[in-house]
From TrEMBL:
One of its GO terms (molecular function) is dioxygenase activity. PROSITE patterns: VOC. InterPro entries: Extradiol_RC_dioxygenase (IPR052537), Glyas_Bleomycin-R_OHBP_Dase (IPR029068), Glyas_Fos-R_dOase_dom (IPR004360), VOC_core (IPR037523). SUPFAM superfamilies: Glyoxalase/Bleomycin resistance protein/Dihydroxybiphenyl dioxygenase. This is Ring-cleaving dioxygenase. Keywords: Dioxygenase, Oxidoreductase. Residues 7-131, 152-269 form the VOC domain. The lineage of its organism: Bacteria, Bacillati, Bacillota, Bacilli, Bacillales. The keyword Oxidoreductase applies. Pfam families: Glyoxalase.
Length: 313
């Protein structure tokens, strides 16, 4: 039986000032800041995680915020668009909310669904789509109630330098089902209820480059450590250069660059975000990896002060 990933685990992007990042994803979109920690490779920079109330796989977007970094360019070799899913009947609320915050958007139809397209303050391309599937998010913030709250990822749009090779990987090795083609896109679906729809753009354009406003990588779900090791062996056997397992505190990770030049990660569902603080208090204080705890005082002085604010008047 072929191994299949159930869908997206998380998406990680590069953005600008951390307070602007928090104001948008918590204040405007109503996501929960489930973890404030630091970049493992650059501990003077935050690593911020936003998701649903429990910080479940399939809901988590993570950010490296560099306040003075150069802008990137969205293009081939990247996740081009990140899609969020909301409950059926919530679209009018989100149109009104984007209008309230003077966020420009367009409404289009793709694969029989209406989609709101807009960008965040640092240039990331986002979408909101309504779907029945997926558990409701019990997190409430400001005027956003569970009846309209973002459930998690609807999926992502991949911009590949070699779409045919990326399509083959998604379908033949990762177990996603090809469910349709429309215009410049092939649509794939995984088995999860959220983070399950991948649209692959079939016409390459210009190569992207990393910087503020671009996605760094997309992570796919592995059920546990044993499942992850199976993926590691499988990808290596099929010619992909896969990293050793890396402990990311809240999940374990392996990475490889697929043939369309997009950086893929496979991350374990456990242990999750509540193993080092309670679910009730997640995101309230700076949590540091063990190796950096001895530098807490210096890091807290160096990091830009941030706070979560309700922006609804």
């Amino acid at each position: 039986m072929m191994s299949k990933t159930s869908g997206i685990h998380h998406i990680t992007a590069i953005v600008g000032h951390p307070q602007e990042n928090i104001d948008f994803y918590a204040g405007v979109l109503g996501l929960r800041l489930v973890k404030r920690t630091v970049n493992f490779d650059d501990p003077g920079t935050y690593h911020l995680y936003f998701g649903n109330k429990g910080g479940n796989p399939g809901t988590i977007i993570t950010f490296f915020p560099w306040a003075d970094a150069y802008p990137g360019k969205i293009g081939d070799g990247q996740v081009g668009v990140t899609s969020y899913v909301v409950p059926k009947g919530a679209m009018e609320f989100w149109e009104q909310r984007l209008n309230t915050f003077h966020i420009s958007y367009t409404k289009i139809e793709r694969f029989g669904e209406y989609v709101l397209k807009f960008v965040d303050p640092h240039g990331l391309q986002l979408e909101i789509v309504e779907r029945e599937e997926g558990e409701m998010n019990p997190w409430a913030f400001g005027r956003i109630t569970p009846a309209v709250a973002i459930k998690g990822f609807g999926g992502a749009t991949l911009y590949s330098a070699h779409p045919n090779k990326t399509a083959e990987l998604l379908e033949k090795l990762m177990g996603l089902e090809r469910i349709g083609e429309e215009g410049d896109y092939i649509r794939f679906r995984s088995s999860a209820d959220i983070g399950n729809i991948i649209d692959l753009k079939v016409t390459p354009k210009d190569r992207g480059h990393m910087g503020v406003g671009t996605v760094h990588h997309i992570a796919w779900r592995a059920t546990d450590d044993n499942d992850q090791l199976k993926w590691q062996r499988k990808m290596a056997a099929n010619g992909y250069r896969v990293t050793p397992v890396q402990d990311r505190n809240y999940f374990n990770s392996i990475y490889f660059k697929e043939h369309g030049e997009i950086l893929f990660e496979i991350a374990t569902d456990p242990p999750g975000f509540s193993h080092d603080e309670s679910e009730e208090t997640m995101g309230e204080k700076l949590m540091l990896p063990v190796q950096y705890e001895q530098y807490r005082e210096q890091l807290e002085r160096r990091l830009i002060p941030i706070r979560i604010k309700e922006l609804d008047s």
